[in-house]
């Protein structure tokens, strides 16, 4: 009896111990599940806090930017003038009033009002910001435009000659606040391809520098296309930028290398920057493409990328376009996302009321400004890209459309004639 009681006691103790072990295991498991859930929840909270922090910071920055931005023209001092080679000169500009500068989006440009001796009116020209956004100066890099090869007797470029020959350190110039739609959204790191042809390097260089500053980890491909070493600017600086991060792949392409140009040292690829080259080098077409360069390069890249099934909203570009040389309609269309618009209305009458002239506008006529010039009607202009606002003209009757989206749409009743086309018969105050 006594022994039976002892056995029962042992069994009860064993069951109790087993229960305890089972209970402890459950608790431990529960703690483990809870703690990993807690860690993941904490990580989520930290992530969202950071994102919200970034958004709030960006809002603060935008508010602060609005406060330091300006309307119209502001006086800037040329702090430094630096020859870059290849007929390009960089100008470092500081505000004359010493007040803070707004940041800009990499890819944007400045608009200048130049009072050039011998010119009756001010000359307006736009130049891209070629450095990354910094708070104490702006930099533009300007190519001296020489007469075209087929017309060597023509005068050299008005604005660029003035900058190169007559603007010196400490001079004061009038500058509009940074603007433009061609820029990189720096808040969203993503795989991109940047392409600069000739002086079209300037906006994409600004993008590259900002990407490095922000330490983007996504794939970045950078192509710089020029004829040969004589046009190669900022060579060492570009090399340094290209070697700073493993995710950045930089290629310099010479289309016609000179005798002294050394492959592998001065340049990487013989040939033009082209979509065929991208097909060879890039693992896929799955990138956002940003490019700026001469019209031929822009046309072929745009068409080639579309044929390669790159969606239009992933192709971003800007054309500089010489300001006094008439852009051919085809060149406009090749780069314009709105190319088909011109088909919608052809054969409209444009009446220039002040000059008492009428002209027929067709889809080959280009912009209203082009048509005006063709018919000796005087309209002032600056950038010929719908940005500087110089060519703003009243529309007395009728309505306009735009070949490419202007920097800022003018109030109704006016148009930016350098990029405007008529939607029907129209009367213009010019
Ligand atoms: C948004 C934007 C950003 C830009 N960014 C830059 C930049 O970063 N760097 C840069 O260098 N440029 C840039 N440009 C281009 C710049 O604005 C000017 O268009 C460029 O400097 C030429 O202007 P210009 O006054 O020197 O030449 P223009 O006087 O406009 O002349 C242009 C060309 O026409 C020739 N020409 C003049 N008269 C005649 C004639 N009668 N017959 C035949 N040919 C003639 C000239 O020799 C010259 O080659 C940008 C343009 C835009 C719209």
How many discrete domains?
3
The small molecules bound here are: flavin-adenine dinucleotide
Structural class: alpha/beta
Computed CA radius of gyration, to the nearest angstrom? 30 Å
Physical arrangement of strands within the biggest beta sheet: 4-3-6-1-2-5
Structure description:
- With 430 residues, the protein is of the alpha/beta class.
- It folds into three domains: 73-179, Translation factors (Elongation Factor Tu (Ef-tu), domain 3); 192-325, Rossmann fold, CATH 3.40.50; 341-428, Ubiquitin-like (UB roll) (Roll).
- It has nine helices and 19 strands.
- A six-stranded antiparallel beta sheet has the order 4-3-6-1-2-5, covered by helices on one side.
- β1 and β2 form a beta hairpin.
- It is globular and about 115 Å long.
- The structure holds flavin-adenine dinucleotide.
Could you give a quick summary of the protein structure above?
With 430 residues, the chain is of the alpha/beta class. The protein has helices spanning 2-68, 158-166, 201-213, 235-242, 275-281, 295-307, 329-335, 341-344, 368-374, and strands at 73-85, 88-95, 109-114, 123-128, 138-143, 172-179, 192-197, 220-226, 248-254, 269-270, 288-292, 315-318, 348-352, 357-361, 392-397, 400-402, 414-416, 420-422, 426-428.
Helix and strand arrangement:
Elements: H1 2-68, E1 73-85, E2 88-95, E3 109-114, E4 123-128, E5 138-143, H2 158-166, E6 172-179, E7 192-197, H3 201-213, E8 220-226, H4 235-242, E9 248-254, E10 269-270, H5 275-281, E11 288-292, H6 295-307, E12 315-318, H7 329-335, H8 341-344, E13 348-352, E14 357-361, H9 368-374, E15 392-397, E16 400-402, E17 414-416, E18 420-422, E19 426-428
Parallel strand pairs: 7-8, 7-11, 8-9, 9-10, 11-12, 13-19
Antiparallel strand pairs: 1-2, 1-6, 2-5, 3-4, 3-6, 13-14, 15-17, 15-19, 16-18
The structure holds flavin-adenine dinucleotide.
């Amino acid at each position: 009896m006594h022994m039976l009681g002892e056995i029962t006691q042992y069994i009860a103790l064993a069951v109790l111990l087993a229960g305890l072990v089972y209970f402890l295991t459950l608790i431990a498991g529960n703690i483990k599940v809870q703690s990993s859930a807690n860690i993941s929840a904490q990580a989520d909270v930290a992530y969202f806090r950071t994102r919200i922090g970034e958004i709030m910071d960006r809002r603060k920055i935008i508010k602060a930017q609005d406060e330091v931005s300006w309307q119209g023209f502001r006086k800037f001092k040329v702090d430094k003038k630096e020859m870059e080679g290849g007929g390009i000169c960089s100008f470092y500009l500081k505000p004359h009033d010493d007040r803070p500068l707004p940041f800009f989006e990499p890819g944007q440009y400045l608009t200048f009002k130049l009072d050039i001796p011998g010119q009756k009116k001010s000359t307006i020209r736009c130049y891209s910001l070629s450095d990354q956004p910094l708070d104490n100066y702006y930099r533009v890099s300007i190519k001296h435009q020489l007469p075209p090869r087929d017309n060597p007797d023509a005068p050299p470029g008005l604005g660029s000659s003035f900058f190169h020959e007559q603007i010196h350190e400490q001079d004061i110039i009038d500058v509009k606040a940074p603007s433009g739609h061609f820029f990189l959204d720096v808040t969203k790191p993503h795989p991109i391809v940047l392409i600069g042809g000739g002086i079209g390097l300037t906006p994409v260089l600004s993008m590259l520098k900002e990407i490095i500053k922000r330490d983007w980890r996504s794939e970045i491909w950078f192509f710089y296309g020029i004829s040969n070493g004589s046009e190669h600017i900022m060579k060492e600086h570009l090399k340094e930028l290209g070697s700073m991060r493993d995710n950045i792949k930089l290629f310099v392409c010479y289309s016609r290398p000179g005798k002294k140009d050394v492959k592998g040292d001065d340049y990487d690829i013989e040939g033009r920057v082209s979509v065929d080259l991208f097909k060879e080098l890039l693992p896929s077409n799955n990138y956002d493409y940003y490019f700026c360069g001469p019209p031929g390069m822009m046309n072929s890249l745009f068409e080639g990328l579309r044929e390669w099934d790159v969606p239009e909203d992933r192709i971003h570009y800007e054309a500089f376009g010489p300001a006094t040389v008439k852009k051919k309609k085809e060149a406009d269309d090749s780069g314009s996302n709105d190319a088909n618009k011109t088909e919608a209305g052809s054969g409209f009458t444009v009446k220039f009321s002040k000059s008492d002239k009428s002209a027929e506008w067709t889809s080959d006529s280009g912009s209203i400004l082009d048509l005006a010039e063709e018919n000796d009607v005087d309209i002032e202009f600056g950038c010929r890209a719908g940005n500087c606002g110089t060519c703003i003209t009243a529309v007395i009757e009728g309505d306009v459309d735009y070949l490419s989206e202007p920097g800022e749409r003018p109030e109704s009743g006016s148009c930016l004639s350098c990029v405007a086309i008529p939607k029907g018969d129209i009367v213009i105050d010019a």
